[in-house]
Amino acid sequence: MLVRLAAAVRGRCDAEALAVMAAARRRLLADTTELLLHDPGAGPGGRGGGVRRSTVAAVARRSSGAAAYHRLLCRLAELAGDGIILELGTALGLGTLALAAGAPAATLHTIEGDPALARRAATLFRQQGLRRTTLHTSTFDEVLPSLTRRLPRLDLLFLDGHHEKDATLRYFSLLLPLLHPESLVIVDDIRWSRGMWQAWQTLRRHHRVTASVDLLRMGILLFEPAPHRRRLTWWPHLSH
Ligand SMILES: C[S@@+](CC[C@H](N)C(=O)[O-])C[C@H]1O[C@@H](n2cnc3c(N)ncnc32)[C@H](O)[C@@H]1O
């Protein structure tokens, strides 16, 4: 898996998929529609959730990160093939679009606790015809107990919401029984706060994690049997 991961990080996402992702991003960045947001997680800058006004364009700029990281996400998703992908934190759906572009045959579940964002993501998924994607509009805590009972396994887990140490570790523990030796876990924003950095360090040392790769903004955990635990840092190729 480490060899396949290295190839994916260096690789290139399909040109047609890139064009679709770029067009969707451009549309959202130009959309000045007002939103009343209820972030159930750590909120912007870790200042807590609460209710605040924003616009679609501002959310696209802030919570969906650099376009280059979505291109990387697309390449990583290819490793899931026709498996099962779970994303915690949909926001406007740009990350989901990248995952679906990289793994069009995969079954994708994504969870968003903010109803206004979830409605926007649902519109995007309809426009893009993402038929293998299920959007769950609720908090992770509400959805995960029943979802984990229904899923046979997880091939790719993208932890990208509720960026607090305890919450991140809790969601990882809850989903751990679904992970297998070929699974991939992507933890986003590992340098976003002290707590996220501590969560990442704890996860790297978890007894089931056999290799971890620090890609600067995100970290990847691997579970395939190995004689030694490997901790790597790679500079991702973000230009393609
Ligand atoms: C960083 S954004 C996700 C970005 C998205 N994955 C992407 O790549 O475009 C995090 C999202 O997680 C949602 N969120 C945070 N904590 C949550 C929770 N406990 N339950 C449900 N959603 C949550 C927030 O409302 C926010 O929209």
Strand content: 15-25%
Query: Unreliable runs, pLDDT <50, ≥5 residues?
Result: none
Average residue pLDDT: 93
Taking Cα atoms only, what radius of gyration do you get, to the nearest Å? 17 Å
The CATH topology name reads: Rossmann fold
Ligands bound here? S-adenosylmethionine
For the biggest β-sheet, the strand order reads: 5-4-3-6-7-9-8-10
Distance between the first and last residues' Cα: 21 Å
Largest sheet: 8 strands, mixed
Number of domains: 1
Question: How helix-rich are the residues, as a percent range?
Answer: 40-55%
CATH homologous superfamily name?
A: Vaccinia Virus protein VP39
Bulk shape: globular
- Give helix and strand order, one letter per element, not per position: HHEEHHEHEHEHEHEHEEE
What is the count of β-strands?
Answer: 10
Secondary-structure-based class equals alpha/beta
The CATH architecture is 3-Layer(aba) Sandwich
